Amino acid sequence: MWKKCVVPALLILLAVSLVSCFDDEEDRVIPPKSPYKSLSADGPRDNALFNLQLSCNERNIDRYDELLEENFVFYFSPADVQNGTVSSESWNRASEMTAEANLFDPNYSNPSQEPAQDIDLTLVYPSGDDQWTPIEPEDQVTYPGETWYQKIVTYNLVVQLPGDFQYVGLNKQAALVLRAATTNSKQVWRIVTWRDDTGTSFRGVVRRGQAAGIAEDTTWGQVKALYSE
Prior knowledge:
Elements lengths: L1 H26 L18 H13 L2 H5 L2 E8 L2 H5 L7 E3 H12 L13 E7 L8 E3 L12 E13 L4 E19 L2 E11 L10 E3 L10 H7 L3
Parallel strand pairs: 1-7
Antiparallel strand pairs: 1-2, 3-5, 4-5, 5-6, 6-7, 6-8
């Protein structure tokens, strides 16, 4: 009699346990998978370009920050420098991060510059690691024996300001150079140099209004310079 009672009891306990497991599965919150790609140096170099575009469009300053090498240098278009549109030939990582943080901030407050309300960046480039050109760094003291990789990208950039005004850079080119940097004992792809507007001529800084119908372009560097303070 005792054995007959034990078996149904065990079956009931098993059923309750299974229901509880199913309830736990339903209640469990699964975090969404990040759309950003791994920057591990054993993965595709194009992942850095993918993350660059996404971080700008999402205005994610933390993701942008992780893309830049410690000794990162941004070089402005030679035409921008020659025409006095920008005040220097290049700037360092700190200046780059300041400009991008301001550009990404929809509440950016500056009497001489309106905040950006939206950023639409599209990068176009030949895909694949074989499309990156191996180069030797000029500074062999800091980077002895390293091989860096360069790729030319074409970019279309539209920065929306309050109202109908936009900064527009269309069919511009930039040369991006990656190196495998060591971070937390792991090698990851980082952008070490970035040369803006390498294949197009100077057009002048233009703030385009839909009503005005102005269609001239600006460069990426020109836009950055506007948000440098």
